[in-house]
Structures are given as structure tokens and as C-alpha cells.
Design brief:
This protein has six helices and no strands. With 169 residues, the protein is mainly α.
Length: 169
């Protein structure tokens, strides 16, 4: 059991050591860094919301605090899911398709990209900047979508992560 991991944090080095896929190993590094960054972002956001709403009564203020925590979970869970799935597979020595690790690494990268696309879609019109370059038409199209559509790309890729896990195991 020396190779066994202990919890979510221990799953990252364990999955990195256990996998033969370089694509997945690179996602373990990037996914870990992005997860830490997103976690710090949401912790500071919750602190800011609590500081801004101190002295107020419960009700809507308590709901907004809880909303930050729920959104944080909806972002962090799909970031760590590929790592946890692969670590679990190797720990249990389950027979799965040869491309399982690489496919989950790829879906992890797709989720990170979908977060960026979702953020671009949800930028308020007053904060949108003029775009230039080769990707200008793409960014302008994303700016033109309704802000609420920003949740669609991460949700779709989250479902793809789960589908890939179910299909290839």
C-alpha cells in the first residue's frame, strides 16, 4: 500500500506516477496548477463577499455566499475528476481501454479550454475589448452570445468527461 494515495491531493502524484500517457501526465501538472489557482480565486471571492456583506441580515446575503461555494465546486470537481478517475483505475488495477488515460487527459484539457471560452462569453459588454488578429471573428462571435450561454461549454465538457470515463472503462 506504499503506492496508494491518501485523498484528493495524494491522487495527483499517484496518477502521475501510475500513468504511461504523457498527455495525461501533462494534464496532471496543468490540472493541479489550475485547480489551485481556481481554488484561491474562489476563496478570495468568498472572503470578499463576506467582507462586503457583514453587518447585513441573512436571506439573500447568505444565499450569495453559498452560491460562490457551489459555483466553485462546479468548477473544481471537473478539473480534478480525470485525475481521480485514472488514479482509482490504477489503484484498483481495473482493466480498461489502452487509451483511457490519454482520453481523460484530453478531456481535462478540453475542460480548461471550455472554462476560458465560457469566461469570454460571459464578459459584460462594458468590459469587452476590441479584438484584433486571427481569432478576432471567433472572439466577436463569443462576445455576441448571451452571457448566460457561458455556462454551456463547461457543462458540455463536464458531461464529456463522464461519458469518456463510462465508455472507456
Amino acid at each position: 500500500m506504499a503506492d496508494d494515495y491518501g485523498g484528493v491531493i495524494g491522487a495527483f502524484p499517484y496518477a502521475f506516477r501510475a500513468s504511461d500517457s504523457w498527455l495525461f501526465r501533462s494534464y496532471v501538472v496543468l490540472g493541479g496548477l489550475v485547480t489551485v489557482a481556481v481554488g484561491l480565486l474562489f476563496v478570495t471571492a468568498v472572503i470578499g463577499v463576506i467582507a462586503g456583506t457583514t453587518g447585513g441580515r441573512g436571506g439573500n446575503l447568505t444565499l450569495s455566499r453559498s452560491f460562490f461555494a457551489v459555483v466553485g465546486l462546479f468548477v473544481v470537481v471537473p478539473l480534478v475528476a480525470p485525475v481521480l478517475f485514472v488514479a482509482r483505475r490504477h489503484r484498483r488495477r481495473e482493466g480498461v481501454a489502452d487509451r483511457y488515460d490519454a482520453a481523460l487527459g484530453l478531456t481535462g484539457y478540453l475542460f480548461v479550454a471550455s472554462l476560458y471560452v465560457g469566461l469570454v462569453i460571459s464578459v459584460p459588454p462594458g468590459q469587452q475589448t476590441a479584438t484584433t488578429g486571427a481569432l478576432a471573428p471567433v472572439v466577436e462571435t463569443l462576445y455576441g452570445l448571451p452571457q448566460f450561454a457561458g455556462v454551456v461549454p463547461p457543462l458540455a465538457v463536464s458531461a464529456l468527461i463522464l461519458l469518456c470515463h463510462r465508455r472507456l472503462r
